[in-house]
Amino acid sequence: MPLSDDLPRTLLDLAVPHEDINELTAAAAQFTADPALGELLEHAARALVENIGTLDVHPAPPAPPEGLGDLERWFPVCAVLAALPRTRAYHQERNIPEDIARHTLADLGRHIALHRRRHGNGGLLTPGWLGLHARGEIYQLGRLQFQRAVLGRRTSRAARAAGLDVQPGDPCLNLHIPDFLGPLTPQACADSLTRARAFFARHFPEERHQVAVCHSWLLDEQLRDHLAEDSNIVRFQGLFRIAYRSDDPADGEPVGFVFGDPDLPVADLPRRTSLQRAVTGHLLNGGHWYVGHGWFAL
Length: 298
Hints:
Layout: H1 7-13, H2 18-33, H3 35-49, H4 70-93, H5 98-105, H6 107-119, H7 130-134, E1 138-141, E2 144-150, H8 153-161, E3 171-176, H9 186-203, E4 211-216, H10 232-237, E5 241-245, H11 252-259, H12 274-284, E6 292-297
Parallel strand pairs: 3-4
Antiparallel strand pairs: 1-2, 2-3, 4-6, 5-6
């Protein structure tokens, strides 16, 4: 764990919201002052980076003991902080530019803000997500995040049918669209892809990324029935070939991402933007949203 005197400065570098810094600093001090909690935190941090650099290995972080109160919310955050020196060392081993490393790790602050938007306090909605950052799997390159991943069976089959020489388990880049980062314009996406091609060829030359993939409700082709043809989302969809669509409805995905909480009553959702009207109108008319799985050749 970074020393307490240096921790607030570290949290600022990680884009942790200002209103959470004092509480998080106090929580970190409690973890490091209690030998039992400190040992548990060290175990969690080691688990995060145990397979650093390895693809498709996602260990579940150890859960904190019950009865910790507010400390329970901060446990996964403190585990990421405790693992930070190893993560930064890995970035240095790979010669990752400092600005890319900093922007990538600042996703911690973004996800603390997402927790606050939904629950009114700091924490992590999906504690395992930051494990991707801790193990050097994901990088922020402009508007998009790119995760070093492996092709699945159905996507690789679709790519092979289109003429690519790929197999399940081959390296690929999984695109993610972070929140709080402005519009998803075609220009921003093109810039991110240009950066990604150069970045991974330089820093991970042993991995041959032939295919980019995305698994998201943003690739539900029903959105084309509700949004303008020149909307950013429809043009984002135009980058991809759809390999398949999940069978089970995922209505909570767009509700959670657009409105901040997947459990909000649909009838009460605001309809100020075209996307808000699309999401709510489709659900109120008895429709469902699904996760689309798309790919394109790099």
